[in-house]
């Protein structure tokens, strides 16, 4: 079963607002076994909306619209729907009651603009919006259905989860569709593809493989579709088991797992604590930890030692090491990690020092050169990375590498 998603609003096309709605809708449809055929963003112009409605309803049995249902003049989705379905707006007293209830205590009085939200196309089935003022509108089309939902993300998600998706599943029985995502670290896409080519060719017909690269990481998504969910799950599990001997050492997670979450879980299981000493990553590594609820149980703190004086004065790095080897070196980054353990009393530490650019590089240490160290109280390991150009890219890849490698070291018992 296929679906089209339409998001409406000038703000989407000029980049003022990022369209997160269609991504979320696509994920939820996929879980239900419904494939998204196309996602279209269209401006607040009635003729353009009509053209997209015609195209999508002729192509897909399921068309989902988000946006353009507010009370102001630029919200013209209902007018376009009336023209498309050759119907008129009528007053819906139940919707008006919901609007009054929702706005009670939020505004001094209900005005005419608020009342317009109770005007709905006569030919639609109205689904109440219990967390906002714009109702959900369900239309029948020659191929299937068209559903118009609010553009406010929280309202759209509530409508999809509680009303729209259950109705779609009931109206359109689908094949089972499952996705598994394998997260791989520190390998170019072309080399990975070559390395697992025979495995890829051996995949059963029910499984499709997609490569989803991002800086320093690649997601391998396995999508399986068929009539029996259990058989699909077994086929995907078998494929992953066969992949492990090939690239198990660079796999760092599955599905929605975040490496920082998994690292925190490992540390909690060991009743251990960790700290950071950051130079080139500038606190971003610490941000990965503190973005996870419950991190305070294991994360003691961080020193952003951007200058050599802080490396020496706070972390206790020997100035002779800095003078002899430079701040971006194995010797200095290892001393930083050991210093972080000493001053925070942590069991483990991660430290970073590098050249994020765009200036500061040399032939020996080009922009993108980063040293990272991982330490326990009695052992320290380090590694040199070449992350290329792009300051933000280098910072993010440094933090990711720090977390991912620490997770791998703890899992293997190597630190």
TrEMBL record:
Pfam families xrefs: CinA, CinA_KH, MoCF_biosynth
Coiled coil: none
Database matches in CDD domains: cinA
Source domain of life: Bacteria
InterPro entries membership: CinA (IPR050101), CinA-like_C (IPR036653), CinA_C (IPR008136), CinA_KH (IPR041424), Competence-induced_CinA (IPR008135), MoaB/Mog-like_dom_sf (IPR036425), MoaB/Mog_dom (IPR001453)
Residues annotated as domain MoaB/Mog: 4-171
Family stated for the protein in its record: Belongs to the CinA family.
Protein name in UniProt: CinA-like protein
